[in-house]
Each structure stands twice: as structure tokens, then as C-alpha cells.
Amino acid sequence: MTVSIVVAAALVGPAVFNDHMRRAGHGDQPDVLEHAQEAFYSAGLQSIGIGLLVAAVGALLVSVVTTRRLGRWLDALGRGALRVSAGRYDQPVQLDGSSPELERVADAFNGMSAQIQTTEARRRTLLTDVAHELRTPIAAIDVTLEALEDGVLIPGPDTYATLRAQSARLARLASDIRDVSTAEEGRPRLSLEDISTANVLEAFARQWTQRFAEAGVGLVIPAGPGVTIHADRARIGQVLDNLLANALRHTFSGGHVEVRCSVSDGLVLVEVVDDGEGIDPRALPHVMERFYRADPARSRADGSGTGVGLAIARAIARAHGGDLQAHSDGPGRGATFTLSLPSSPNLHRS
Fold first, then answer.
1. In sequence order, which ranges of 229-326 are alpha helices (DSSP H)?
2. What share of the chain has pLDDT > 90, as a percent?
3. What value, to the nearest 5°, has the Cα angle with vertex 239 and ends 233 and 243?
4. How far apart are CA 222 and CA 259, in angstroms?
5. Concatenated DSSP letters for 163-230?
6. Cα 184 from Cα 203, distance rounded (Å)
7. Which class would CATH give 100-184?
8. Could you tell me the pTM of the whole model?
9. Strand partners, 195
10. With respect to CATH, is domain 193-342 assigned 3.40.630.30?
11. Domains of the chain by residue range
12. What are the tens digits of pLDDT across the range 281-301?
């Protein structure tokens, strides 16, 4: 850059200077012209030299200041990375006065740290919950085997049934943990196709009517024309299975469960409404969390559920671009679970 400035000044300056001297009437005065040229060269070179020196000093100062500030910002990012690697996620990286580009880097880093913190919290909660859930069936199997060894129990159908039931409970827990982890990570495999809600509900009527009748609970599932949706038949079946099993588990003999299907604001709504136990307002925001139970003692005692069915159902609904919501007016006043799914682009009654 410096060489370019000097060369440009040497080539352009004298010609311009001589032209101005001739216009001023000094073109026929060689002595005056020579002295003026010498003065011009000297002044020009000194000016250029001083200017370049000032520019170099200024550039050096700016470079030092910028390098120091950049070093502080990079050091802050480095310390933040060390904190995250050490498992400390509660101190976000602050880059005060940095450039917009570095601010975006800091925001992305803090977002990543928050996501890691959430994932780590879920992992710890899951391990705690799984350990708690495994304790009951393992204890039951252990007690049964100990009684057999001591001769307190005689091997027979009841003993084998107990062992099979607890073994099945462990298998169901393992399957549910796999399903909820897959679904909540947003990577369930969906085999999408156009399906009719009428056909799906008809199949569920055949599958569940007898079970509800044996429990003394009435079941009403709409028949007739339904709505075509673009969804995974098996996954939607899994959601409805969970909702009906949940409704049956929390509805007393003599109660009723009704399934409703409608379309609203471009969404297909499938509601499972019961007049059973209802949900306490304090528990309502948590009913679809993993392993949450409003009455943990009862369900753990009878092994009626692993506590992840609703979490799986909601995750599957969201994987379809929909949602699953719960509503209850309180204990003893029943509950409504609403599955919402985006309508098919070619929505029609079928």
C-alpha cells in the first residue's frame, strides 16, 4: 500500500505541478521552476512520510485494541466451553460490546448450552424414574423366588402367573421407555398415508367394546362417515389405544366414555371424554409428563401402567404436526383428552 502511494505521487504529482506552474506564467523561468519542483518534492515526500507514519501508528493502535478485545471475547467463549464440558450450564457467555457476528455466535453457544442442560436434566430424571419403576416388579419377582426357595410357595399356576405378570411389566416398561425416548426426540418413523377416521374408530370399537363391557363402563364411538387424514395408521392407533386405556383405568364401573370426531379451523379433533375420576387442577399441567401419576400408589400397586403412555401419545401427535391436550373440571368431574391433527390437503368426508 505504501509503495503504491509513493509511486502514484511520483508519477502524477510532478506533471500536475508543472502544469500549474506554466499556467501561472513560470514555464519560461527554469531556475524558478527547478527550485519550486525541488520544494514540491521535498514537501510532498515529507507529507507522505508523516502521513504514512501517522497512519501506521493509528493502524497499529487499532490493531492492538481490536486484538485485545477479540482476545477477551474468544477467551470468554473458551471459558464458557470449559464450563459446559465440566457440566456447569447456568453461566451464559456474555460478549459485551462485541460485533453482531460474535453476538450471534454467543447466542448460538448459549442456546446449545441450554439444550444440553435440558437434555442432561431429562437424562437424570429418566434414570431416576426408571430405577423407581424397576424396583416394584423386581421386588415382586425377588420375593416370589425367595418364597419358592424357602418352600413357602409351591410352584403352580398362581405362582407362574405372578412371575409372568411382573416379567411382562418389565418388558412393557422397556418398550415404553424406548418409544417415549424415540418420540420425544422427534424422530419416530412415520409411514404416512390417507386414512379415514371412520375406519380407525370402527376398528377400535370392535377392539375395545368387550373390554369396556367387562369393566362395566359404557363406550360410545361414532359410526358413519368420517374425515380423511394423512397420518401413520399404526401410530395414531397407538395414541388412541393409550387414550382409551387411560379412560378405562380412571372411570368407575357404571361410568361412560365417549369418543368424538370433528373438524375445526383446519384441524381434525378426536376427543376421548369420560365421566370418571377427573384430574386435580394442580396435576393437570403434568399429566403428560413421563412417569407422572396423579395417584402413584394405586397404579404402581396394580401395575396398570408405566406412566409414559400419555407422554408417548403427545409426542406422536406432535410428530404429525398436531398436539394432545387434557382438560378436566376437577376431581370427580371426568376428563377430556383432545387429539388434534392437521387436516389432509385433500380433506373430505369418507
1. 233-249, 296-302, 309-319
2. 14
3. 140
4. 7
5. HHHHHHHHHHHHHHHHHHHHHHTT-----EEEEEHHHHHHHHHHHHHHHHHHTT-EEE---S--BEEE
6. 27
7. mainly alpha
8. 0.57
9. 229
10. no
11. 2-85, 100-184, 193-342
12. 888 888 877 666 555 444 444
